[in-house]
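Preliminary data (for renewal application), pyridoxal-5'-phosphate complex.
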Amino acid sequence: MKQKRFFLNEADLPKQWYNIQADMVNKPMPLLNPATKEAIKAEDLYPIFAKELCRQELNQTDRWIDIPDKVREMYAYYRSTPLVRAYGLEKAIGTPAHIYFKNESVSPVGSHKLNSALAQAYYCKEEGITNVTTETGAGQWGAALSYAAKLFGLEAAVYQVKISYEQKPYRRSIMQVFGAQVIPSPSMTTRAGKDILTKDPNHQGSLGTAISEAVELAQMTPNCKYTLGSVMSHVALHQTVIGLEAEKQMEMAGEYPDMVIACFGGGSNFGGISFPFLRHNILEGKKTRFIAAEPASCPKLTKGKFEYDFGDETGYTPLLPMFTLGHKFKPANIHAGGLRYHGAGVIVSQLLKDGLMEAVDIDQLESFKAGCLFAKAEGIIPAPESCHAIAATINEAVKCKESGESKVILFNLSGHGLVDMSSYDQYLAGNLVDYRLSDEEIEKNLAAQD
Ligand SMILES: *Cc1c(COP(=O)(O)O)cnc(C)c1O
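Predicted structure:
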């Protein structure tokens, strides 16, 4: 029998995360203080994030960062996640390509997000913090943080984007089961929320708005820190556990990827699976392609501009050098809530600028079609976000079919969609539409920033 799944022994789980900043020839440009335009130092971020996370954020020198023992212990609850050869999907497509996926959906909360939530909750606890707060879109990050906070004895308050709070009630319940307080955003609990609701009482919420609210709460509450599940460099750092495991598992399978593909919201699961392989491109001249799959309704990588922009709608965050659609951009209400963010993390932005990675945009209907094909072929219902990676993978596998090449494709299955069945319902009922932005709309959004 051909081997389908590859696992690592607990003793072989990564002991360190990989910090790609140390190996980048062109380092990410500094984050800037919006008032003075001076480069942000780690200390400047201490009021918002746990100190160790601030240091990790700006660390451009240490290639390897030790994973604390207590975090490794919690990783062992669900890691290694399986590396799976997608024989079923290959057959369904009729491609000579070898398709593998890293199955992050097996984490207790159903997505890769827990890899960073555990690390962040751990550092907060170590530093004497009692409360954590955050924003969440589809609820994946909120669920991960709620669980991690419970494990490490912290109180969690989660601002959930209103449209997702309404569309995805079960994720809210999951957070509540873990003991978190969940607030639909925009809310009247913060100045940022009140300002937005005053101007637009029907505002559906966005990740940018929810970030503003959570940051404000963290700044106003003693012993409370803000946490972020994507975009930041320290989040991508923690997620490299995915790619580091995959590297060893691909070796067990006797293959090395020609392409690594992941869906793209702010870049954490993409960075997590890509960076460990990308280091071999940078250091040894390997030629693997790295492809980020973003939604056509929120195309910051393929259609955005590289410039300094705020990470949130209100402008509380430092200015970040990134590919962006403008921090006032309001993405359409697509069902892949985790991909509705206006900007890309600073590391991936620099890598894209330098031609070290690529991006493609995927329409909503194409993503669900790909997700259904994958579900029938492999028996796993993917998260609507992950469907974008699957669609991009299928497109590459079809090209292999046309050219007759047996390329090795590795993609990240960032989460399962079992809590997203209302989205699948809508798709199957024919109620979903595509939201492809015109160049004029994008220009208008970028110009409307200041
Ligand atoms: C949050 C999320 C994403 C998008 O976030 P990234 O930081 O870009 O990885 C993708 N897939 C799932 C399942 C998510 O929960």
